[in-house]
Amino acid sequence: MGVETDQQVISILRRIYNLKYHSDKYKPNGEDESNNNVIVNVFKSEPITWESFVSNNLDFLDFPLWLAELVDSQKLKVAHANAIMKLSPDETLMKRIADFVIETEKNAKETNQIVEDVLRLKNKTGGPKRSLISYPHRGFFGDNEFSGNASGWLLVDLILLYKPKKVFDPMEGSGTSRDVCRIMDIEYEGGDIYSDKHKFDVLTDEVPVNDLTFFHPPYWNIIDYSKAFSEFLKKEIPPKENDLSQCPTFADYMEKLFFCIDKLLKKCKRLAILIGDVTRGTEFLSPQAGIIWHYNERVEDCWIKEQLHEYARYRYEQQSFVPHSHEYVIIMKGDLYG
Questions:
Q1: Per-residue confidence (pLDDT) for residue 5, from 0 to 100
Q2: In 29-41, which positions are buried (b, 16+ CB within 10 angstroms) versus exposed (e)?
Q3: Which of 150, 152, 149, 171 is closest to 256 using CA atoms?
Q4: Residue 10 lies in a domain
Q5: Model-level pTM?
Q6: Are residues 218 and 84 in the same domain?
């Protein structure tokens, strides 16, 4: 057929595609008739035409052209495309970021921030270097307007350290874990009791088998999550019975928290819990202490994370305690560990 490799076919496909759809930039030459015959023979027994094949695979056949066509069709702005091209030559990653930017309707400033974070991520190796961790730059993951949102860099560290093939998050809030896994190309399942699109109630729904479960439950009633989601989604959302932030007493909260942990441990290799302490007037309550005492034989590690959220600091400063600026990351061995 005049070609020896798939790469030669791809090169010819690009040429014919450009001649047909970008005739203002590309002019025919003496080899094009022969090229046409090659493509006719290649696709003679295929169920689709070469035009359909190229349209469906243009991002892999010719990424710069695919990106340019997104700009021409106004799905992407020039500033977005220029930012994404900084990730060259990793076209698979560039495609992932372009799709993410379009789907989430990021502006140019946000896109540049995403690219900077992805470049930082590409240079990052291993997990935390010590058990005291802090993430002053929270990253683009999730939405920092959502109350209780944690930095996605924590999950990045957990993924780099434990190398899970699949991650699950039963209380994903604004979607931080979903964004992290999408950018890192990790299989993901998750949801939230207040989510419309990805609804999940950890107390009643079936937990999927996974390598790493990231569990960031409410710190009892420090934040009312029905109100938090109402503010975030800009619509009134009534409280859910199984929302842990609605528990009337701390004892009720701990009972439901343990039920969730028991359920999650059965389906994972590792469970990472991000949890903080609770203060009420002169009363100090520590879910972390209860978890470590109750599941002592399961605990693999415990990190101290600096808490940088201004709302949380404000709440703690209203108490008679020294303002709290830390949380705990408890890593536990699940039933599938080993």
A1: 64
A2: eeeeeebbebbee
A3: 171
A4: yes
A5: 0.80
A6: no
**95 part of a folded domain:** yes
CA distances from 72 to 51, 77, 88, 94 (A): 19, 9, 20, 18
Domain containing 162 equals 124-333
Evaluate whether residue 315 is within a structural domain: yes
How many whole angstroms separate alpha carbon 316 and alpha carbon 305?
Answer: 16
pLDDT band at 42 (very low <50, low <70, confident <90, very high): low
Tokens at residue 280, please? Answer: 């009420």
If you average pLDDT over residues 112-116, what whole number do you get?
Answer: 89
Is 338 inside any structural domain? no
What are the tokens at 231? 């503010």
- Band (pLDDT 50/70/90 cuts) for residue 63 is confident
Residue with tokens 């350290």: 161
End-to-end CA distance of the chain: 53
Let me know the angle formed at the C-alpha of 116 by 111 and 118, rounded to the nearest 5 degrees: 95
